[in-house]
Design brief:
Helices cover 53% and strands 0% of the residues. With 273 residues, the protein is mostly helical. The protein has one domain (8-95, 104-272). The termini are far apart.
Length: 273
């Protein structure tokens, strides 16, 4: 069987993974070299207030990630349908004889993700405020989250596999949580004197989240495959399942789940006749 090619969207994700990884590794290398060969290390100001008191890595983070977030505020073909489904232009009502209600995931799954994230970052916050780690480590953790974000999309997502149980990124309930989650460590720097560039990233990411949640409340039909045909496999141009082997559409187990969903849809239609 011929090897399946990656889609343009997959290639775009790969490019993001590469430059985010380069930024993270550059910051780690600089941090380590400064600790070994630099001047006296004081109060974690290597990355947070860098060369000549100019926060070089924070400036790069703002330039890169703010540039990415801009595309979350309007419809574009250059972004994944997973985050673009909030816009009306990407809503294709499913064609059924009976009006279908959005089959939303149980809120408990979303709360499980939220709770686990709060727990993880609560530990990080405790380490920071007790002086175990410095502001630089928080910046490195934030950059590491950015790399992990793309790994989740392309190869394996623990939130999708173990908690949300959604089909793939296309139907992900928390897709646009990525930037707020990425910059969670920077929240702990809000009360810290020094550069304020992190406020820009935090503010923009939470505006993205607010837009997402408002859309989910007002237009839930755009978020579920049984009401939005744009999210169906037949209309998918991204084909992330070609390289993310953990997505349900690649496993026989979830094919059975999809079969059960199809049967359930038919039974719902029969009941509503």
């Amino acid at each position: 069987m011929a090897k399946q090619k990656w889609s343009n969207m997959s290639k775009s994700h790969l490019c993001k993974l590469i430059y985010r990884s380069v930024l993270f590794l550059s910051a780690v290398i600089y941090y380590v070299l400064f600790l070994i060969f630099g001047k006296d290390y004081n109060d974690g100001n290597i990355l947070f207030a860098d060369i000549g008191d100019v926060p070089v890595f924070l400036i790069l983070m703002v330039f890169i990630f703010l540039g990415e977030m801009v595309f979350r505020f309007f419809p574009t073909k250059h972004e994944a349908i997973g985050n673009q489904k909030i816009f009306k232009v990407n809503y294709i009502p499913t064609t059924t004889t009976v009006e279908m209600k959005p089959r939303k995931q149980h809120p408990a799954r979303t709360l499980l993700v939220f709770g686990s994230w709060v727990l993880l970052n609560g530990i990080i916050a405790t380490l920071y405020f007790t002086g175990v780690i410095t502001a630089d480590i928080l910046v490195l953790i934030s950059l590491a989250y950015g790399v992990c974000d793309l790994i989740c999309i392309m190869f394996f997502c623990p939130f999708q596999a173990w908690m949300m149980k959604n089909k793939c990124c296309t139907t992900c309930r928390i897709y646009n949580w990525d930037y707020p989650m990425m910059f969670t460590p920077l929240l702990f720097l809000v009360a810290r004197p020094g550069p304020v560039l992190h406020y820009v990233l935090i503010g923009a990411s939470f505006v993205v989240l607010l837009l997402w949640e408002i859309s989910y409340i007002r237009h839930p039909e755009r978020f579920t495959e049984n009401t939005n045909d744009r999210l169906s496999c037949k209309n998918c141009n991204e084909k992330l399942c070609r390289h993310n082997k953990f997505f349900p559409c690649k496993s026989a187990l979830v094919k059975n789940v999809e079969d059960r969903n199809t049967i359930r849809e038919k039974s719902e239609i029969e009941v509503n006749k």
